[in-house]
């Protein structure tokens, strides 16, 4: 198909871009190979996050990955690569003989699809139902991230702003859609606001808060859930009641109101009288910016969303994509925006649906072939803005939602980097792996009607590990 051919050709020089990255990471040491500074800094001071059924452990500094030399070899491979093989020669018998029995594991249930691609050339090495749409669970975050990075760029930062009315008597806290806004950043915003008010000679104000940047329902179709707060343009710490919690956590039903009340207390502690409980509302006519804080770069938000399968960040990424492309920032608007943005990248979207950004919605559909196309495109030197899609993937046995999977004896430990996907009856794994000959492979394995995660996850891990061995 023409659309598949396009990304295959685009991936033809993929290792060139990864080779450039190798020089930067080699100086930082073996563990840093292939992992961005933003990801390491975030891991050291981890804010609570997690995805459906993903329990993310607390911060832990891993030992250097024993596979790091192999990773660096793959990153530094020569730029020249053979031309893509014709489809008739795209499934080597030995790889099929290894993967087919593993794909038949009963733990994967009756419906399973697979795609394995050589990243440097786009050559399809193994396929089983690769074009069939499947419920992807959290592997859809790969698509959400690619769309956001493509639309906004990796350096984009999300603002949270305070504006003041003409008469100086009303402040409005304006949400920009940063789900990672923390109490420390809100304190910085309060400091800046108080300094500006003192310069104006103001000591008493009314406080309102504005969430109008997002539209439509804030409730995900799954309803109130510890995996996702109501989607709001204004929230603190992803709406968690307990800010030290990780993974599944109790969420506030009013993230914007809670954020505004926290900000009001911070202003009061700094000597500003807000006179009343903050209320929702738009800024008064003629209001002007007074203070603001910015989120971490989008590249860091993408890495956090992928490493820890953070649903709140993923939904924010989808809405930020909608805003950047002229769509309304709602579930439906985000679906249109993500679809439109990925179509611009000439990806194989037949049967795809992006009903949400996080993968919690079972109406989502992706094919294994689309996932490997996305991963290959993220390695393409023509698309450096997409690189965080690769650097944010959890490392087998070391980080994020793969921290507790694989093990010291698995050939995939340290070599497999992959996004997990878990819903009841749905399990998936999509990412990259360094093959024994040093080639970087992209893979996607999707399974439906699985008997349990405890049966499906080891089966998926064996498939990815087989590519490393």
UniProtKB/TrEMBL annotation:
Keywords, alphabetical: Carboxypeptidase, Hydrolase, Protease, Signal
Any GO MF annotation of the entry: serine-type carboxypeptidase activity
Presence of the UniProt keyword Lyase in the record: no
InterPro entries on file: Beta-lactam/transpept-like, Peptidase_S13
GO terms (BP aspect): peptidoglycan metabolic process; proteolysis
Transmembrane regions: none
Comp. bias intervals (Low complexity): 70-91
Protein family (similarity comment): Belongs to the peptidase S13 family.
Name listed for the protein in its UniProt record: D-alanyl-D-alanine carboxypeptidase/D-alanyl-D-alanine-endopeptidase
Annotated organism of origin: Streptomyces lunaelactis
UniProt gene name: dacB
């Amino acid at each position: 198909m023409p659309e598949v051919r396009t990304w295959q050709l685009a991936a033809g020089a993929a290792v060139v871009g990864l080779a450039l990255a190798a020089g930067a990471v080699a100086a930082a040491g073996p563990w840093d190979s292939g992992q961005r500074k933003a990801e390491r800094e975030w891991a050291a001071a981890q804010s609570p996050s997690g995805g459906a059924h993903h329990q993310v452990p607390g911060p832990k500094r891993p030992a250097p990955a024993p596979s790091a030399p192999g990773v660096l070899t793959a990153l530094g491979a020569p730029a020249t690569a053979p031309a893509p093989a014709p489809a008739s020669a795209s499934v080597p018998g030995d790889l099929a003989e290894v993967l087919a029995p593993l794909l038949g594991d009963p733990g994967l249930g009756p419906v399973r699809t697979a795609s394995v691609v050589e990243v440097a050339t786009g050559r399809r090495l193994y396929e089983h139902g690769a074009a069939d749409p499947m419920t992807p669970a959290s592997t859809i975050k790969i698509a959400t991230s690619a769309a956001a990075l493509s639309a906004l760029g990796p350096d984009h930062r999300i603002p949270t702003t305070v504006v003041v009315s003409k008469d100086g008597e009303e402040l409005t806290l304006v949400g920009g859609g940063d789900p990672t806004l923390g109490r420390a950043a809100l304190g910085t915003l309060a400091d800046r606001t108080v300094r500006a008010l003192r310069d104006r000679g103001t000591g008493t104000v009314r406080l309102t808060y504005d969430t109008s940047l997002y539209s439509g329902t804030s409730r995900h179709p799954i309803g109130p859930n510890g995996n996702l707060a109501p989607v709001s343009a204004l929230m603190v710490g992803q709406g968690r009641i307990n800010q030290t919690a990780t993974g599944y956590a109790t969420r506030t039903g009013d993230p914007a109101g809670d954020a505004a009340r926290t900000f009001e207390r911070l202003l009061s502690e700094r000597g500003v009288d807000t006179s009343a409980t903050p209320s929702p509302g738009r800024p008064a006519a003629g209001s002007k910016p007074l203070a603001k804080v910015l989120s971490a770069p989008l590249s860091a938000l993408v890495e956090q969303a992928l490493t820890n399968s953070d649903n709140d960040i993923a939904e924010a990424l989808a809405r930020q994509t909608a805003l950047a492309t002229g769509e309304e920032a709602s579930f439906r608007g985000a679906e249109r925006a993500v679809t439109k943005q990925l179509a611009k990248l000439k990806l194989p979207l037949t049967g795809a649906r992006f009903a949400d950004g996080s993968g919690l919605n079972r109406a989502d559909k992706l094919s294994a072939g689309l996932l490997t196309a996305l991963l290959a495109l993220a390695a393409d030197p023509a698309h450096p803005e997409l690189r965080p899609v690769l650097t944010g993937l959890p490392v087998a046995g070391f980080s994020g939602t793969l921290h507790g999977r694989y093990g010291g004896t698995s050939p995939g430990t340290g070599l497999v980097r992959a996004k997990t996907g878990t819903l009841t009856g749905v399990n998936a794994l999509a990412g990259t792996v360094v093959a024994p000959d040093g080639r970087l492979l992209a893979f996607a394995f999707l399974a439906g009607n699985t008997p349990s995660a405890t049966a499906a996850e080891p089966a998926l891990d064996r498939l990815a590990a087989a590519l490393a061995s």
